[in-house]
């Protein structure tokens, strides 16, 4: 996104507490989004939110943190409802949450490894 300018817009980013999701949040803040909903199952997104504030180029930038489990439809519905109720709409959606359903020391909580994590996601 280097050099990309966005004139506002509302972003929702899953997996926002680390890795690619965190980097996408920073890039969106620099590019000029008006707001980001940082969603992650692990909730150290407050640090990401604070760092986004430092990078933000939009004068009215806002960032909200929300705990969400992308394998739980009710949690995803709540995430979308909160984004719309608190930010008005969603213009950009980045699904960067890691979802591992292969051999793992932790059992997979999703119904099927082929299940789409969020309704409507492709």
TrEMBL record:
Pfam families the UniProt entry points to: adh_short
The UniProt record lists the keyword Transmembrane: no
Molecular function terms from GO: oxidoreductase activity, acting on the CH-OH group of donors, NAD or NADP as acceptor
Record key words, sorted: NADP
Family under the similarity heading: Belongs to the short-chain dehydrogenases/reductases (SDR) family.
Record-linked PANTHER family: SHORT-CHAIN DEHYDROGENASE_REDUCTASE, SHORT-CHAIN DEHYDROGENASES/REDUCTASES FAMILY MEMBER
Protein name (Swiss-Prot/TrEMBL): Uncharacterized protein
Organism from which the protein derives: Aspergillus kawachii
Lineage: Eukaryota, Fungi, Dikarya, Ascomycota, Pezizomycotina
């Amino acid at each position: 996104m280097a050099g990309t300018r966005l004139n506002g817009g509302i972003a929702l980013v899953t997996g926002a507490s680390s890795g690619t999701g965190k980097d996408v949040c920073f890039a969106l803040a620099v590019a000029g989004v008006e707001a980001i909903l940082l969603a992650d199952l692990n909730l150290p997104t407050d640090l990401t939110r604070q760092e986004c504030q430092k990078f933000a180029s939009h004068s009215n930038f806002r960032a909200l943190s929300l705990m969400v489990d992308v394998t739980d439809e009710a949690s995803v519905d709540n995430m979308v409802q909160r984004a719309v109720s608190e930010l008005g709409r969603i213009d950009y959606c980045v699904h960067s949450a890691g979802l591992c359903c292969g051999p793992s020391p932790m059992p997979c909580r999703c119904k099927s490894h082929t299940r789409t994590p969020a309704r409507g996601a492709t």
